[in-house]
Amino acid sequence: MAKFTKLGALLASAALALSGSAALAADYTLTISSWAPPTHNINAKMWPKFIEMVEEATDGKVTAELKLGLAPPPAQMDLVMDGAADASIIFHGYQAGRFVTTKLIELPGFEGSAEDASVAYWRAYDEFLKNADEHRGVKVIALHTHGPAQLHTADPIENLDQISGLKLRIPGGVGGDVGGALGATGIQVPATKVYETLASKAADGVVMPIDSRKGFKLTEVAPHMYEMPGGFYRGSFAMIMNEDILADLPEDLQQVLEEKVFGEPFSRELGKIWDAGDVESIGVTEGTEGNSITVASDADQAAFAEVAGSVVSAVLEEVAATGVDAQAAYDMIKSEMSGM
Q1: 2-146+236-276 architecture in CATH?
Q2: Of 69, 87, 103, 106, which residue is least crowded by CB atoms under 10 Å?
Q3: What pTM value is reported for the model?
Protein backbone atom coordinates (compact mmCIF):
# COMPACT_ATOMS: atom_id res chain seq x y z
CA MET A 1 0.00 0.00 0.00
CA ALA A 2 2.98 2.30 0.42
CA LYS A 3 3.34 2.77 -3.32
CA PHE A 4 -0.22 4.05 -3.62
CA THR A 5 0.16 6.40 -0.66
CA LYS A 6 3.44 7.82 -1.95
CA LEU A 7 2.08 8.38 -5.44
CA GLY A 8 -1.06 10.01 -4.09
CA ALA A 9 0.99 12.43 -1.99
CA LEU A 10 3.26 13.24 -4.91
CA LEU A 11 0.43 14.23 -7.21
CA ALA A 12 -2.07 15.59 -4.70
CA SER A 13 -1.43 19.22 -5.58
CA ALA A 14 -0.99 18.69 -9.32
CA ALA A 15 -4.61 18.94 -10.45
CA LEU A 16 -8.25 18.30 -9.75
CA ALA A 17 -9.36 15.39 -7.53
CA LEU A 18 -12.93 14.31 -8.05
CA SER A 19 -13.39 11.69 -5.37
CA GLY A 20 -13.87 12.79 -1.81
CA SER A 21 -14.45 10.79 1.34
CA ALA A 22 -14.38 7.45 -0.54
CA ALA A 23 -10.62 7.77 -1.00
CA LEU A 24 -10.14 8.19 2.73
CA ALA A 25 -12.14 5.04 3.51
CA ALA A 26 -10.52 2.81 0.87
CA ASP A 27 -7.43 0.67 1.38
CA TYR A 28 -6.06 1.56 -2.07
CA THR A 29 -6.50 4.74 -4.08
CA LEU A 30 -5.58 4.80 -7.76
CA THR A 31 -4.53 8.03 -9.43
CA ILE A 32 -6.20 8.63 -12.80
CA SER A 33 -4.70 11.09 -15.29
CA SER A 34 -7.07 12.60 -17.86
CA TRP A 35 -6.79 15.36 -20.42
CA ALA A 36 -10.26 16.35 -21.65
CA PRO A 37 -12.08 19.40 -20.24
CA PRO A 38 -13.64 18.84 -16.79
CA THR A 39 -17.16 18.97 -18.23
CA HIS A 40 -16.50 16.51 -21.07
CA ASN A 41 -18.13 13.12 -20.63
CA ILE A 42 -14.70 11.47 -20.36
CA ASN A 43 -14.24 13.21 -17.04
CA ALA A 44 -17.83 13.96 -16.05
CA LYS A 45 -19.16 10.44 -16.61
CA MET A 46 -16.64 7.85 -17.88
CA TRP A 47 -14.08 7.99 -15.11
CA PRO A 48 -16.74 8.40 -12.42
CA LYS A 49 -18.36 5.24 -13.83
CA PHE A 50 -15.03 3.46 -13.52
CA ILE A 51 -14.67 4.55 -9.90
CA GLU A 52 -18.22 3.40 -9.19
CA MET A 53 -17.59 -0.02 -10.77
CA VAL A 54 -14.28 -0.47 -8.94
CA GLU A 55 -15.70 0.48 -5.57
CA GLU A 56 -18.71 -1.79 -6.05
CA ALA A 57 -16.61 -4.76 -7.19
CA THR A 58 -14.11 -4.43 -4.34
CA ASP A 59 -16.61 -3.51 -1.59
CA GLY A 60 -14.96 -0.12 -1.29
CA LYS A 61 -11.44 -1.45 -0.75
CA VAL A 62 -10.23 0.20 -3.98
CA THR A 63 -11.18 3.64 -5.24
CA ALA A 64 -9.58 6.27 -7.48
CA GLU A 65 -8.92 9.99 -7.78
CA LEU A 66 -9.17 11.86 -11.07
CA LYS A 67 -6.50 14.46 -11.79
CA LEU A 68 -6.45 16.74 -14.81
CA GLY A 69 -3.61 18.51 -16.55
CA LEU A 70 -0.75 16.17 -15.63
CA ALA A 71 0.35 15.80 -19.28
CA PRO A 72 -0.92 16.44 -22.82
CA PRO A 73 -2.94 13.72 -24.60
CA PRO A 74 -0.06 12.10 -26.55
CA ALA A 75 2.01 11.68 -23.35
CA GLN A 76 -0.55 9.67 -21.38
CA MET A 77 0.77 6.23 -22.32
CA ASP A 78 4.30 7.07 -21.19
CA LEU A 79 2.94 8.76 -18.07
CA VAL A 80 1.33 5.50 -16.98
CA MET A 81 4.29 3.36 -18.02
CA ASP A 82 6.61 5.56 -15.93
CA GLY A 83 4.34 5.29 -12.89
CA ALA A 84 3.51 9.01 -12.73
CA ALA A 85 -0.15 7.98 -12.85
CA ASP A 86 -1.88 4.67 -12.22
CA ALA A 87 -4.42 4.86 -15.04
CA SER A 88 -5.32 7.03 -18.01
CA ILE A 89 -7.21 7.28 -21.28
CA ILE A 90 -5.35 7.32 -24.60
CA PHE A 91 -6.53 8.19 -28.09
CA HIS A 92 -4.57 5.94 -30.42
CA GLY A 93 -4.60 8.33 -33.37
CA TYR A 94 -2.42 10.84 -31.53
CA GLN A 95 0.64 8.62 -31.94
CA ALA A 96 1.10 7.72 -35.57
CA GLY A 97 2.85 4.41 -36.10
CA ARG A 98 2.71 3.33 -32.46
CA PHE A 99 -0.73 1.73 -32.82
CA VAL A 100 -1.78 0.10 -36.07
CA THR A 101 -4.28 -2.66 -35.28
CA THR A 102 -6.48 -0.15 -33.44
CA LYS A 103 -7.32 1.46 -36.80
CA LEU A 104 -9.72 -1.41 -37.52
CA ILE A 105 -12.45 -0.05 -35.26
CA GLU A 106 -11.99 3.44 -36.73
CA LEU A 107 -13.04 2.38 -40.23
CA PRO A 108 -16.16 3.93 -41.74
CA GLY A 109 -19.05 1.65 -42.63
CA PHE A 110 -19.74 -0.13 -39.35
CA GLU A 111 -23.45 -0.17 -38.52
CA GLY A 112 -24.43 0.24 -34.90
CA SER A 113 -24.06 2.26 -31.74
CA ALA A 114 -20.92 3.16 -29.83
CA GLU A 115 -21.93 0.58 -27.23
CA ASP A 116 -22.18 -2.14 -29.88
CA ALA A 117 -18.90 -1.07 -31.45
CA SER A 118 -17.04 -0.91 -28.13
CA VAL A 119 -18.13 -4.41 -27.11
CA ALA A 120 -17.26 -5.79 -30.55
CA TYR A 121 -13.90 -3.99 -30.37
CA TRP A 122 -13.02 -5.59 -27.06
CA ARG A 123 -13.97 -9.05 -28.32
CA ALA A 124 -11.88 -8.63 -31.48
CA TYR A 125 -8.98 -7.37 -29.38
CA ASP A 126 -9.20 -10.37 -27.06
CA GLU A 127 -9.39 -12.76 -30.01
CA PHE A 128 -6.95 -11.18 -32.47
CA LEU A 129 -5.56 -7.70 -31.88
CA LYS A 130 -3.80 -8.22 -28.55
CA ASN A 131 -1.39 -10.57 -30.32
CA ALA A 132 0.29 -7.51 -31.85
CA ASP A 133 1.27 -6.43 -28.30
CA GLU A 134 0.96 -2.74 -29.16
CA HIS A 135 0.13 -1.79 -25.57
CA ARG A 136 3.13 -3.52 -24.08
CA GLY A 137 4.16 -1.97 -20.82
CA VAL A 138 0.61 -1.24 -19.60
CA LYS A 139 -2.54 -3.14 -18.74
CA VAL A 140 -5.46 -2.49 -21.12
CA ILE A 141 -8.57 -2.32 -18.96
CA ALA A 142 -11.06 -1.23 -21.66
CA LEU A 143 -11.32 -0.35 -25.33
CA HIS A 144 -14.00 1.86 -26.77
CA THR A 145 -15.03 4.05 -29.66
CA HIS A 146 -17.30 7.03 -29.97
CA GLY A 147 -20.23 7.20 -32.34
CA PRO A 148 -19.82 8.03 -36.03
CA ALA A 149 -17.70 11.18 -36.47
CA GLN A 150 -19.20 14.02 -38.49
CA LEU A 151 -17.99 17.26 -40.08
CA HIS A 152 -18.50 20.46 -38.07
CA THR A 153 -17.76 23.76 -39.83
CA ALA A 154 -17.95 27.51 -39.46
CA ASP A 155 -19.81 27.84 -42.78
CA PRO A 156 -22.53 25.47 -44.02
CA ILE A 157 -21.48 22.48 -46.12
CA GLU A 158 -24.14 21.24 -48.54
CA ASN A 159 -22.31 18.52 -50.43
CA LEU A 160 -19.28 16.25 -50.27
CA ASP A 161 -17.35 18.11 -52.99
CA GLN A 162 -17.10 21.19 -50.79
CA ILE A 163 -14.78 19.36 -48.40
CA SER A 164 -11.89 19.40 -50.86
CA GLY A 165 -9.54 22.28 -50.04
CA LEU A 166 -10.95 22.96 -46.58
CA LYS A 167 -8.55 23.30 -43.67
CA LEU A 168 -9.87 20.78 -41.18
CA ARG A 169 -8.69 19.64 -37.80
CA ILE A 170 -8.49 15.90 -38.35
CA PRO A 171 -7.13 13.36 -35.89
CA GLY A 172 -4.53 10.78 -36.82
CA GLY A 173 -5.47 7.24 -37.68
CA VAL A 174 -8.33 6.56 -40.06
CA GLY A 175 -9.71 10.05 -39.57
CA GLY A 176 -6.57 11.42 -41.20
CA ASP A 177 -6.76 8.83 -43.98
CA VAL A 178 -10.34 9.79 -44.79
CA GLY A 179 -9.62 13.53 -44.68
CA GLY A 180 -6.75 13.12 -47.11
CA ALA A 181 -8.86 11.00 -49.47
CA LEU A 182 -11.50 13.74 -49.54
CA GLY A 183 -8.93 16.41 -50.41
CA ALA A 184 -8.97 18.31 -47.12
CA THR A 185 -5.88 19.95 -45.69
CA GLY A 186 -5.35 18.31 -42.35
CA ILE A 187 -4.46 20.32 -39.25
CA GLN A 188 -3.45 18.05 -36.40
CA VAL A 189 -4.02 19.50 -32.96
CA PRO A 190 -5.26 17.60 -29.91
CA ALA A 191 -8.93 17.76 -29.03
CA THR A 192 -8.14 20.11 -26.16
CA LYS A 193 -6.98 22.75 -28.68
CA VAL A 194 -9.94 22.45 -31.08
CA TYR A 195 -11.98 25.35 -29.70
CA GLU A 196 -9.18 27.90 -29.91
CA THR A 197 -8.10 26.59 -33.32
CA LEU A 198 -11.57 27.17 -34.72
CA ALA A 199 -12.14 30.43 -32.82
CA SER A 200 -8.93 31.87 -34.31
CA LYS A 201 -10.02 30.82 -37.83
CA ALA A 202 -6.90 28.67 -38.18
CA ALA A 203 -9.20 25.92 -39.46
CA ASP A 204 -12.46 25.87 -41.39
CA GLY A 205 -13.86 23.02 -39.37
CA VAL A 206 -13.25 19.77 -37.58
CA VAL A 207 -14.20 16.12 -37.97
CA MET A 208 -15.21 14.81 -34.55
CA PRO A 209 -18.01 12.82 -32.90
CA ILE A 210 -21.36 14.51 -32.39
CA ASP A 211 -20.73 14.35 -28.65
CA SER A 212 -18.10 17.09 -29.13
CA ARG A 213 -20.70 19.69 -30.03
CA LYS A 214 -21.40 19.96 -26.31
CA GLY A 215 -18.19 18.48 -24.88
CA PHE A 216 -15.88 20.84 -26.77
CA LYS A 217 -18.39 23.67 -27.32
CA LEU A 218 -18.48 23.27 -31.10
CA THR A 219 -21.91 24.89 -31.16
CA GLU A 220 -20.07 28.18 -30.57
CA VAL A 221 -17.27 27.91 -33.14
CA ALA A 222 -18.52 25.33 -35.68
CA PRO A 223 -22.28 25.83 -35.76
CA HIS A 224 -22.93 23.76 -38.88
CA MET A 225 -22.81 19.96 -38.96
CA TYR A 226 -22.65 17.93 -42.17
CA GLU A 227 -23.82 14.43 -41.30
CA MET A 228 -22.68 11.39 -43.24
CA PRO A 229 -24.86 8.42 -42.17
CA GLY A 230 -22.49 5.89 -40.64
CA GLY A 231 -19.92 8.63 -40.09
CA PHE A 232 -16.57 9.51 -41.61
CA TYR A 233 -14.69 7.40 -39.04
CA ARG A 234 -14.84 6.24 -35.41
CA GLY A 235 -12.13 7.06 -32.90
CA SER A 236 -10.19 4.41 -30.99
CA PHE A 237 -9.57 4.83 -27.26
CA ALA A 238 -8.10 2.67 -24.53
CA MET A 239 -8.28 2.92 -20.78
CA ILE A 240 -4.92 1.73 -19.47
CA MET A 241 -3.35 0.95 -16.09
CA ASN A 242 0.15 0.65 -14.71
CA GLU A 243 1.04 -3.05 -14.51
CA ASP A 244 3.06 -2.77 -11.29
CA ILE A 245 0.28 -0.94 -9.46
CA LEU A 246 -2.17 -3.65 -10.46
CA ALA A 247 0.24 -6.39 -9.38
CA ASP A 248 0.61 -4.75 -5.96
CA LEU A 249 -3.09 -5.24 -5.22
CA PRO A 250 -4.04 -8.38 -3.28
CA GLU A 251 -4.84 -11.28 -5.59
CA ASP A 252 -8.49 -11.42 -4.58
CA LEU A 253 -8.95 -7.77 -5.56
CA GLN A 254 -7.13 -8.29 -8.86
CA GLN A 255 -9.42 -11.21 -9.62
CA VAL A 256 -12.64 -9.37 -8.92
CA LEU A 257 -11.53 -6.39 -11.01
CA GLU A 258 -10.73 -8.72 -13.91
CA GLU A 259 -14.12 -10.41 -13.62
CA LYS A 260 -16.43 -7.48 -12.97
CA VAL A 261 -14.75 -4.34 -14.31
CA PHE A 262 -11.91 -4.79 -16.78
CA GLY A 263 -12.52 -5.70 -20.41
CA GLU A 264 -16.02 -6.03 -21.80
CA PRO A 265 -17.99 -4.70 -18.78
CA PHE A 266 -16.15 -1.38 -18.66
CA SER A 267 -15.95 -1.13 -22.46
CA ARG A 268 -19.72 -1.53 -22.72
CA GLU A 269 -20.38 1.21 -20.17
CA LEU A 270 -18.04 3.58 -21.99
CA GLY A 271 -19.88 3.00 -25.27
CA LYS A 272 -23.20 3.73 -23.56
CA ILE A 273 -21.86 7.06 -22.35
CA TRP A 274 -20.66 8.03 -25.83
CA ASP A 275 -24.13 7.21 -27.22
CA ALA A 276 -25.88 9.29 -24.58
CA GLY A 277 -23.50 12.16 -25.30
CA ASP A 278 -24.42 12.12 -28.99
CA VAL A 279 -28.12 12.30 -28.18
CA GLU A 280 -27.54 15.18 -25.76
CA SER A 281 -25.42 17.09 -28.28
CA ILE A 282 -28.04 16.74 -31.00
CA GLY A 283 -30.52 18.33 -28.63
CA VAL A 284 -28.11 21.14 -27.80
CA THR A 285 -27.46 21.76 -31.51
CA GLU A 286 -31.14 21.85 -32.38
CA GLY A 287 -31.77 24.24 -29.51
CA THR A 288 -28.91 26.65 -30.32
CA GLU A 289 -29.67 29.59 -32.57
CA GLY A 290 -27.60 29.66 -35.76
CA ASN A 291 -26.74 25.94 -35.65
CA SER A 292 -27.77 23.58 -38.43
CA ILE A 293 -27.56 19.91 -39.39
CA THR A 294 -27.34 18.89 -43.06
CA VAL A 295 -27.60 15.19 -43.91
CA ALA A 296 -25.58 14.00 -46.91
CA SER A 297 -27.62 13.28 -50.03
CA ASP A 298 -27.95 9.78 -51.44
CA ALA A 299 -25.48 10.73 -54.18
CA ASP A 300 -22.93 11.95 -51.65
CA GLN A 301 -23.40 8.83 -49.55
CA ALA A 302 -22.68 6.68 -52.59
CA ALA A 303 -19.61 8.76 -53.46
CA PHE A 304 -18.29 8.49 -49.92
CA ALA A 305 -18.86 4.71 -49.91
CA GLU A 306 -16.30 4.46 -52.73
CA VAL A 307 -13.81 6.56 -50.79
CA ALA A 308 -14.43 4.50 -47.67
CA GLY A 309 -13.87 1.27 -49.56
CA SER A 310 -10.39 2.32 -50.61
CA VAL A 311 -9.55 3.37 -47.03
CA VAL A 312 -10.77 0.03 -45.67
CA SER A 313 -8.63 -1.92 -48.15
CA ALA A 314 -5.52 0.09 -47.29
CA VAL A 315 -6.03 -0.29 -43.53
CA LEU A 316 -6.58 -4.04 -43.80
CA GLU A 317 -3.24 -4.34 -45.59
CA GLU A 318 -1.56 -2.18 -42.97
CA VAL A 319 -2.96 -4.22 -40.08
CA ALA A 320 -2.14 -7.52 -41.77
CA ALA A 321 1.49 -6.44 -41.95
CA THR A 322 1.61 -6.62 -38.13
CA GLY A 323 0.96 -10.36 -38.28
CA VAL A 324 -2.66 -10.05 -37.14
CA ASP A 325 -5.38 -11.71 -39.24
CA ALA A 326 -6.86 -8.36 -40.23
CA GLN A 327 -9.68 -9.68 -42.37
CA ALA A 328 -10.85 -12.09 -39.67
CA ALA A 329 -10.77 -9.36 -37.03
CA TYR A 330 -12.63 -6.94 -39.31
CA ASP A 331 -15.24 -9.55 -40.15
CA MET A 332 -15.65 -10.36 -36.46
CA ILE A 333 -16.34 -6.73 -35.59
CA LYS A 334 -18.98 -6.47 -38.32
CA SER A 335 -20.53 -9.77 -37.30
CA GLU A 336 -20.61 -8.93 -33.60
CA MET A 337 -22.15 -5.53 -34.25
CA SER A 338 -24.82 -6.89 -36.59
CA GLY A 339 -25.83 -9.48 -34.00
CA MET A 340 -26.25 -7.04 -31.12
Answers
A1: 3-Layer(aba) Sandwich (3.40)
A2: 69
A3: 0.90
